[in-house]
Amino acid sequence: MFEVISEIFSAPVLVRALIVGILVSLCAALLGVSLVLKRFSMIGDGLSHVGFGALAVASVMNLAPMAVAIPVVIAAAFLLLRLSSNSKTNGDSAIALISTSALAIGVMANSMSKGMNIDINSYLFGSIISVSRGDVITSAILALVVLVIFVFFYTKIFAITFDENFAKATGTNTNIYNMLIALLTAVTIVIGMRLMGSMLISSLIIFPALCSMRVFKSFRAVTVCSAAISVVTFVVGMIISYIADTPCGASIVCVNIVVYAVFFAVGAVLSRSQKS
Description:
Layout: H1 2-10, H2 12-37, H3 43-60, H4 65-85, H5 91-111, H6 120-125, H7 133-152, H8 154-162, H9 164-169, H10 174-196, H11 203-215, H12 219-244, H13 248-275
Helix pairs in contact: 2-7, 2-10, 2-11, 2-12, 3-4, 3-5, 3-10, 4-5, 4-10, 7-10, 11-12, 11-13, 12-13
C-alpha cells in the first residue's frame, strides 16, 4: 500500500488529480448537504449534462473547453433557480428539461465532429490525465471560497436550507444565497467533470450527504461527516483505480456505494436501538 502511495506522489499528473479531486470532493460534499435537504440534489446531474454539451460544442468550434463550459453551466444554474421558483415548472422538471436538451446538443455536436480528435469518453466518464495546473489553482480558490462562506454564513445557509419562507420573512435575502450556492455548485461540477465525467460527477454531491443523514441528525454533524466521507472515498477510489487499472470515476462511485451500505446498516441498527 505504501509503495502504491509513493508511486502516486511520484507522478505529477496523479498528484494534480489527487489535489483537485480532494478539493472538489470537499466542495461537492459541503454544497451537497444543502442541495439534498432542499430536494434539489439532481442539479449536479443536470448541470453536468449542460457541461458535457458545452464542452462538446467548444471542441467542435476549436474553442477553449473550460472557458466555454464554466459560464454556460453558471448560466444554466441560474436558469434552473428561476424555473424552479416558477409554480408552473418544479425543480425536477426544470432539471430534466435543461439536462436532456444539453445532452442532445452535445451528442449532435459530437456527431458532426467526424475526423476531429475529440475523446468523448473523457467528457462522459472523466480522465485523470486531463487535469492541468490551472485546475489545481481553480479548485484551491473554489475550496477556499466555499469554506469561507460556510464558516461566515453558516446560520443563513442553515435557515434557507430548512425553511426558506421563514428565512425570507426574517429579512434574509434568500435569492442571493441560493444564487451563491448555485454558482459554486456550477463551478464545482465543471472542475469535477475533468476527473469524474458528466455521467458520474453528481455522485460526489449525493452520496456523502445521504450517508451522513443515515447516522447523524444535526445539520453541523451531517456537514462535517459528509466532507470527511467525500474526501476519504475519493482517495480510496483513486488508489483502487490505480491498482486495478479501472476508471477513476467509476471506482470512486463504487466505494461510495459500499460506504452508503455500511452507513445504511449502522443507521438501521441505531434506529432500532432508539425505539427499544
